[in-house]
Amino acid sequence: MGKLARLMAVKDARPYWDRLRALYETHIDEPQLAEGLADALGRSAGKEQFDGLVELLRDDSRDDVRVMFISEIIRIGREQGWKVIESVADDPVLGKEASYRLHQRDLRRRAKARRDARRNR
Length: 121
Hints:
Layout: H1 2-6, H2 17-26, H3 31-44, H4 50-58, H5 70-77, H6 79-87, H7 95-119
Helix pairs in contact: 2-3, 4-5, 5-6
């Protein structure tokens, strides 16, 4: 079932996002299905679902499957998404991935600053 859920991880599934969320929220005891549904929720989400993804990320009843929402929150929310990720950097479950993403962002910013400085010489 988890693999079937992952097949719904496409933009075309966006109109069914609320149904996917309801399935995700009811299948707590089936880790593979919950993971597949989390993947589908994240990848099919658009700007309209941003707040819902943030709610799911902060729902600590799900433990490590929530990590799957981090990249999608960044993708959809852009700067607002980064603020959400900064806010969970100290979370015991999400902190490692959030800190990694924040570190990578800082590295990209520094590299861009160096490129810009070389161009402006």
